[in-house]
Amino acid sequence: MNFSGKKVMASALAGIVVAGMLVSPAYAGTAKTAKTAKTTKSAKSEKKEETRNGFQLDDKTGEWHMYVDGEIAKDYYGIDQNIYGWWRIEQGDVNFDSMSVEANPYGWWKLNGGKVDFDYTGLAANEYGWWYIHEGMVDFDHFGLEQNEYGWFRIESGKVNFDFNGLAANEYGWWYLQGGRVDFDYTGLASNENGTWYVRNGQIDFSYNGHVKIDGKQYLVKGGQVSQEAYIWPLDGYTRLSDTFGERICPFHGKEFHDGVDIPAPGGTNIMASASGVVTKATYSSSFGNNITIDHGNGVETMYLHCSALAVEEGDHVEQGQVIAYVGTTGSSTGNHLDFRFKVNGEYVDPLSMVQP
C-alpha cells in the first residue's frame, strides 16, 4: 500500500489553530513570533511607564502629572513646563484653580487657571504681599506707582509698600500717599526733599499760584510749591490777646467795632512784617499813633498801629519777618500793645482767620 498520500494529508492536517483559524505550521510559526514580539513590546511599555519621571501625560486619562520613578509625586509642589506652557503643580497634579503668585528657580510668576500668564502686567497678591507683575513675572527692580481695582499703590523692589506715607511720582504727576495708597480725598500740604507742596485731591497742583488756608494758617503758593507760610505772627513770643476782632466798648470811642486784635507786649518789642510786600503808609495819626500799612498783593494788606517808632518808610519793599517798627502806646492807647489788622479787597477781616499765633 502506498502511504505517500496519507503522509501528505497528515502533514496538511497537522496545522495549528491560531486565533480560531486553522493555519499552516509555517504561518503558526510566524504568528507565534508576532505574539511573542507583541508581548515583549507590551512588557517594555509597562516597564517604561513604571519608570517615567518628570511632568508627563497619562495616556489613559489624558491628564498631566509629575512622576518620580513611575509614580505620581504626591509630595511635589512647584511650577513646571510641558508643551502647552508652565503650570502650577500641587501634590503631583496641575492645580487649575490657582490664581496666585508662585515661585520656581527662575522667578515668581502670576498664575491664571493654574497656568503662568505671560500676558499679565499689573498687581497681584500672594500670602507674602502684593507684587508688581510684568509679562507674567514679578519685577523686583520696579519702583513707582501702579494701579489695580483698589487704587494706586507705591511699589518698591516689586512689592507694594503699605508703610509708605508721603509724596511719590508716576508718569501722571506727583501724588500724596497714606498707607502706601494714593489718597484722592487729601487736600493740604505735603513735603519731600524738594520742598513743601500744595496737594489738591491727592495730587500736587503745579498750576496753582496764590494763597491757601490750611489748619487755620495762610500760605503763599507759587507753581504748586509753598514759598513761605503766607503770614506770620508779628510779635515773636507774644500770643495773648487783650482784645479781639468785633464789637467792644472802647475807653476812647465807646461802643464800636474793633477792626483788629490787640497784642500786649513790652514797649520797644520788635514788630515783624507778617509777609513780604510794599509799605504804602508809614505815618502818624491821633487815633492810630505811629502806624504802618503793607500791601502784600492779591488784595491783601496788613496794618500795625500804636507803634513807639517806625523802622521803614513809604515805598520800601519789606520781607516777611523783617523788623518794621517797635511796640508802643502812641495814639488812642492805654498801654503798650500792637493793634494788628488785616484787609482783604478793602474790607477788614479777623486777623485770626489769616494767621494763628
Automatic annotation (TrEMBL):
Q: Which key words are in the record?
A: Signal
Report the residue ranges that make up the M23ase beta-sheet core domain in this protein: 257-351
Origin superkingdom: Bacteria
Q: Name one GO molecular function term.
A: metalloendopeptidase activity
Query: What range does the record give for the signal peptide?
Result: 1-28
* Pfam families assigned: Choline_bind_4, Peptidase_M23
Q: What is this protein called?
A: Stage II sporulation protein Q
Q: Which organism is it from?
A: Eubacterium ramulus
Name of the coding gene: spoIIQ
